[in-house]
Amino acid sequence: MKINLRRGTALVQDSTGGQAGEWVESPAGMNAVHLDAMLQLLPAPSECHADQSAWVVLPGNRHILFARHRREGNLARIEAWLVHRDDYLACGADSPAIIRALESNPMAETAQVHEVGRTAAELRNILKDGDAPTLLGAAQLLVDGGKLHWPVEAPVPLQQIASVWDLLPTRQRALLGWTNYLNSTRHKLAISAGNQPLDGAWAWEQAGDYPEGNYERALHQAAFQRDDETLARLLNRGSRADVLLLGLILLAVLVIGQLMLASTGWKPPPLFRPAAKEISP
């Protein structure tokens, strides 16, 4: 499918009063409030590797930010692309595929993302070709809200992140922020690589030791039993945030209903009817 891109260029610099930056070329169609919010999400020069460029993917309220930086002294020149959240979800929230499209044609205003449904056969091949325990453990810890980190001095291969990405539910992928290199823990990223690990993050080599969970067990079973129906349910499941929101909505409906009934003076009938008195002849 084709997705629309809003491309811009920003200069970000370190300052004593916090991060300061300006848009050299603003993404079309974005108002000043949204642009200022996006600037706060971009990495500062001190967070950027001097020699290796990094991809940073951060979810916003309405857009997903894709940014690629180049450090220039005390400045970070950042190329940014904004993808509308609806378009992002429509293409399966496939960040690695979008990055590959941007790398092949960074000046494009649209990107062609091949929407391929993830099948049991494809996931089985991923688990066979890679380290299955590590991949499944990484997927489970991300589903559980954990963080994953590659302790490397250079960007990890995008394909390695993509292998983990292919095992995650679509809704989960839409909520995760990640980078393939960042020197700071300022961003609350779920997936990162670099020489400074995120607080509380599991290293890639340790992911295979993560406690086994229901999601990875069901995913492994569906992939190797070629059960595409079960796999589709797993990949389309709601995130923890979705479940929490549904619970809050149901609680609100219940409270409002109780208040409305109380205002009418209606009372529920007793659970037990009193025994009928016998009338003597």
What does this structure look like?
The chain has 281 residues and is α+β, with helices and mostly antiparallel strands. The protein has 2 domains: 111 residues, Beta-Lactamase (2-Layer Sandwich); 116 residues. The protein contains 10 helices and 11 strands. A 6-stranded antiparallel sheet has the order 3-2-6-5-4-9. A 3-stranded parallel sheet has the order 10-8-11. It has a two-stranded antiparallel ribbon with strand order 1-7. Strand 2 and strand 3 form a beta hairpin. Helix 8 runs antiparallel to helix 9. The radius of gyration is 25 Å and the shape is globular. The mean pLDDT is 82.
Short descriptors:
alpha+beta; 281 residues; three-stranded parallel beta sheet; Beta-Lactamase; 20% strand; six-stranded antiparallel beta sheet; 2 domains
Main sheet record: 6 strands, antiparallel
Average pLDDT number: 82
**Can you tell me the residue ranges where pLDDT is under 50 for at least 5 consecutive residues?**
none
Distance between the termini: 86 Å
User: Structural class given helices, strands, pairing?
Assistant: alpha+beta
> Taking strands numbered 1, 2, ... along the chain, how are they ordered across the largest sheet?
3-2-6-5-4-9
Shape: globular
- The percentage helix is 25-40%
Whole-number count of domains: 2
* Helix run count: 10
- What is the strand content? 15-25%
Radius of gyration, in Å, reads: 25 Å
Give the total of beta strands.
11
Order of H and E elements: EEEHEEEHHEHHEHHEEEHHH
